[in-house]
Specification:
- Helices cover 17% and strands 31% of the residues.
- It has a domain of 70 residues: Roll (SH3 type barrels), CATH 2.30.30.
- With 104 residues, the chain is α+β, with helices and mostly antiparallel strands.
- It is elongated, with a radius of gyration of 20 Å.
- The chain has a five-stranded antiparallel β-sheet. A two-stranded antiparallel ribbon has the order 2-3.
Length: 104
């Protein structure tokens, strides 16, 4: 017999798993921090996991930079969120050749 967890979509199974270090997470509720409020849905990165996921140290960069210790019920894994590139895309050899200055 097939286990019921196998029938769930992959994104659903991942969202139920406990976040690990360097996972992207989202806030489930508003959190007050020094300098403002991080709103529900704000995305951050887990930089440290205390014990057996008793608490998480999460770094946020938007809308304000903050390092916050959160309970497991305050965060969820951000599975489907796209992460923006911090570096521009590298040009292909053809694109580099086309941009090369032409000989006079």
């Amino acid at each position: 017999m097939i286990a019921p967890s196998i029938l769930k979509p992959v994104s659903r199974r991942l969202s139920l798993a406990k976040p690990r270090e360097l996972d992207r997470v989202r806030l489930r509720e508003d959190v007050s921090v020094e300098g403002g409020v991080l709103r529900k849905g704000s995305a951050g990165t887990v930089v440290y996991r205390y014990g057996n996921a008793d608490a998480y140290e999460v770094e946020f960069t938007r809308p304000l930079a903050a390092l916050v210790t959160l309970r497991p019920d305050q965060v969820e894994r951000a599975v489907s969120q796209k992460i923006k590139r911090s570096m521009p895309r590298r040009l292909s050899y053809k694109e580099q050749f086309e941009k090369w200055p032409k000989a006079a």
